[in-house]
């Protein structure tokens, strides 16, 4: 594999999320120590493994594409130190337990871990905002994106590397965007996500208004509204927005539900960590106990017409698949997708694009209305350009984005910094 030489001292090796989204992991090696930035998993291919010989593994946030391989460290002969924020630890633990349950329920399962591995991850975790290792200091900085998300800066041999993880500069309804002021300036290398590197989204307020307008219009027609989400953060954000809109009168009172035991557990962590959220959220006693949305265990508990926020986010399993099957054929009903990505050939993607999908051995036609309103927690191109112009990195590596997105971003920032889009396994010396 190519080694691109900028000069010698620190070695960066991109082990995952190169020219794609999923399985983030970057090794940084000095003369004296070796750290990993994130230790994620690709949920559609859990066989991919990273080296285990790190002095510390730094986790930017709890999403499994950044933390899902941590259980693998528990089989290493040397106990590892995992560094990340406390809420990232607590939520990662919930997500890892759920992931193991799902993996172990698959026929011909090869993953080979149980809940005891998750307890060990908890024991290895040092919930500090900075760590000193031989010849290297690491610091965490708020990243927006989701509760507990951090950027990570590494300082060694007079050089600085800033890794964004996933980040977001704009405020969302429950979380403030990241503050660029405290970030280290002129780092030798910025390693930035580029998920939406080629996109500029309309302002958040416009998207929220569009969302509420669409929900109101379906409610007027007495239709059902399905909002498939992930259990961590997006579920709470969507449920809280609907709850608040019903409280303020921006939406009428309507049967409203959340269905996800995992989301319900995460609500508890959010309530216990109110300080992470906006001032408005902090003023409420139990902000993630909703007034107007009821948590139910099963789709049979839903009284129609209803608005339902439920998992799985990609609609391939769980309540979102059951309700899609139940509601797809009726033109009064409405599915609202709030993320920009759906896996190829997933029921939701087929339902949206082909107007039919297959489930339970049947071909189901789709007459329900589909809307895509990208209320994303990722920086878009304008925000990444803002980060680069403020931080002024000498060089920038683009990861965590499809090649098309990374290339569009590269063009947008190439006059401000030397940009490179590494391949998987590629090493760079700085
Ligand atoms: Zn993320």
How do the strands and helices of this protein lay out in sequence?
Elements: E1 3-5, E2 11-16, E3 25-29, E4 34-37, E5 56-58, H1 64-67, E6 82-83, H2 86-104, H3 115-124, E7 125-126, E8 130-133, E9 136-142, E10 150-156, E11 159-163, E12 189-193, H4 204-220, E13 225-228, H5 234-248, E14 255-259, H6 261-272, H7 279-282, E15 294-295, E16 306-310, H8 318-327, E17 334-337, H9 347-353, E18 356-359, E19 362-365, E20 369-372, H10 381-391, E21 395-399, H11 403-413, E22 418-420, E23 427-429
Parallel strand pairs: 1-23, 4-5, 5-6, 6-7, 11-12, 12-21, 13-16, 13-17, 14-15, 14-16, 17-20, 21-22
Antiparallel strand pairs: 2-3, 2-23, 3-4, 8-9, 9-10, 10-11, 18-19
Helix pairs in contact: 2-3, 2-6
The structure holds zinc ion (ZN).
Residues 61, 63, 145-146, 166 line the site of zinc ion.
Radius of gyration: 22 Å
Shape: globular
In DSSP terms, counting alpha (H) and pi (I) runs of 4 or more, how many helices?
Answer: 11
Number of strands: 23
Structural class: alpha/beta
Low-confidence stretches: none
Largest sheet: 8 strands, mixed
Which ligands accompany this protein? zinc ion
Residue-averaged pLDDT? 94
Give a description of the structure.
The chain is of the alpha/beta class and 430 residues long. Helices cover 28% and strands 22% of the residues. It has eleven helices and 23 strands. Strands 1-23-2-3-4-5-6-7 form an eight-stranded mixed β-sheet. A hairpin with a 7-residue loop joins strand 9 and strand 10 (150-156). Helix 2 packs antiparallel against helix 3 (115-124) and helix 2 (86-104) packs antiparallel against helix 6 (261-272). The longest helix is centred in the N-terminal third of the chain and has 19 residues, at 86-104. The chain starts with a strand and ends with a strand. 49% of the residues are buried. The site of zinc ion has 5 residues, from loops.
């Amino acid at each position: 594999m190519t080694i691109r030489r900028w000069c010698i001292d620190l070695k960066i090796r991109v082990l995952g999320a190169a020219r794609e989204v999923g399985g983030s992991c970057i090794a940084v090696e000095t003369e004296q120590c070796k750290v990993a930035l994130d230790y994620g998993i690709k949920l559609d291919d859990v066989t991919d493994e990273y080296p285990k010989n790190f002095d510390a593994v730094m986790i930017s946030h709890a999403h499994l594409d950044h933390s899902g391989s941590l259980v693998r460290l528990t089989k290493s002969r040397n106990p590892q130190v995992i560094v990340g924020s406390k809420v990232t630890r607590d939520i990662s633990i919930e997500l890892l337990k759920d992931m193991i349950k799902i993996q172990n329920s698959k026929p011909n399962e090869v993953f080979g871990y149980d809940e005891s591995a998750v307890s060990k991850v908890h024991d290895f975790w040092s919930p500090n905002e900075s760590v000193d290792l031989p010849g290297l200091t690491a610091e965490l900085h708020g990243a927006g994106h989701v509760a507990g998300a951090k950027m990570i800066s590494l300082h060694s041999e007079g050089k600085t590397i800033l890794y964004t993880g996933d980040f977001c500069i704009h405020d969302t309804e429950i979380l403030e965007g990241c503050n660029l002021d405290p970030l280290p300036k002129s780092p030798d290398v910025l390693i930035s996500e580029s998920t939406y590197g080629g996109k500029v989204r309309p302002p958040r307020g416009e998207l929220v208004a569009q969302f509420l307008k669409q929900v109101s219009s379906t409610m007027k027609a007495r239709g059902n509204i399905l909002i498939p989400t992930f259990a961590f953060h997006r579920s709470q954000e969507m449920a809280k927005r609907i709850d608040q809109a019903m409280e303020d009168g921006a939406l009428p009172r309507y049967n409203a539900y959340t269905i996800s035991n995992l989301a319900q557990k995460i609500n508890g962590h959010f309530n216990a960590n109110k300080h992470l959220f906006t001032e408005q959220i902090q003023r409420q006693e139990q902000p993630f106990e909703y007034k107007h949305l009821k948590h139910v265990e099963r789709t049979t508990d839903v009284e129609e017409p209803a608005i339902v926020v439920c998992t799985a986010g990609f609609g391939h399993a769980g309540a979102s698949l059951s309700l899609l099957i139940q509601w797809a054929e009726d033109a009064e009903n409405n599915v609202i997708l709030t993320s920009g990505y759906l896996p190829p050939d997933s029921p939701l993607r087929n339902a949206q694009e082909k107007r039919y999908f297959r489930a339970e051995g049947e071909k189901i036609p789709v007459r329900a209305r589909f809307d895509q309103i990208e209320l994303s927690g990722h920086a878009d191109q304008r925000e990444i350009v803002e980060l680069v112009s403020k931080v002024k990195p000498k060089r920038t590596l683009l990861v965590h984005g499809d090649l098309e997105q990374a290339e569009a971003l590269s063009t947008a920032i190439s006059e401000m910094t030397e940009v490179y889009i590494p391949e998987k396994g590629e090493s760079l010396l700085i």
